[in-house]
Amino acid sequence: MRVIGLTGGIGSGKSTVADILEALGAKIIRADSVGHEVYRPRTQGWQRVTEAFGRDILAPDGSIDRQRLGAVVFSDAHARARLNAIVHPLIAAEIGRRIEAHRAAGWLEPIVVEAAVLIEAGWLSLVDEVWLIVADRDVVIDRLGKQRRLAPEEARVRIAAQLGDAERQRYAHVVIRNTGSLEELREQVGALWARSVRL
Questions:
Q1: For residue 110, which of 11, 182, 194 has the smallest C-alpha distance?
Q2: Which CATH number fits domain 3-198: 1.10.3720.10, 3.40.50.300, 3.40.50.150, 3.90.1300.10?
Q3: Strand pairing partners for 29?
Q4: What is the separation, in whole angstroms, between the first and last Cα of the chain?
Q5: For residues 28 and 114, is the Cβ–Cβ distance under 8 A?
Q6: Phi and psi angles of residue 180, each rounded to the nearest 5 degrees, phi first
Q7: How confident is residue 159, by pLDDT bands cut at 50, 70 and 90?
């Protein structure tokens, strides 16, 4: 059972590639979803993040408002590092637990860990290989405007806050260039999946 780490910058198309892989038969572990869980009200993660950043980041129902939190951490490297130090170990532990649970249940197909910060968070030990999704910056800014309603300057700030593609490629076993149509992306990912299943 191989574990593939699927990563890339914001707006690169990670979720789309994960959806394609899921349709092909992969078991997907989405780090962002795991992150939502470690932020759940009254959990250890919620408690520590609230203590660190105050109650202004909470929604009316008491949950952490990720947009409010994002507004704080994406513009302040120190705040971002503080948040990451709290939540990254919690997320890694839960991803590891899920991988082991699938292994114990006899899952044989590759497992895909979709994680934007796979490299930065030090999670490479969780995976056997890294698949990197890349896209042109102008395409990413356009996507972020349409999908997340981010103004171009907001999008640039978020891109700048992340590891660059050139650095990510140092760790990548596979680079998927998401520069064409959805059908072209499906063909590219399908060929890579077929290879992985054969390994």
A1: 194
A2: 3.40.50.300
A3: 113
A4: 9
A5: yes
A6: -115, -150
A7: confident
What residues are paired with 64 via a beta bridge?
Answer: 58
Q: Phi/psi of residue 4, each to 5°?
A: -105, 130
How many angstroms separate the CA atoms of 144 and 151, rounded? 8
In the DSSP assignment, the letter for residue 170 is T
- Look at residue 168 and give its three-state secondary structure: helix
- Nearest residue to 114 via CA among 191, 25, 12, 4: 4
Helix (H, G, I), strand (E, B) or coil at 58: strand
pLDDT bin (cut points 50, 70, 90) of residue 156 is: confident
- What are 162-188's pLDDT values in tens digits? 888 889 999 999 999 998 889 999 999
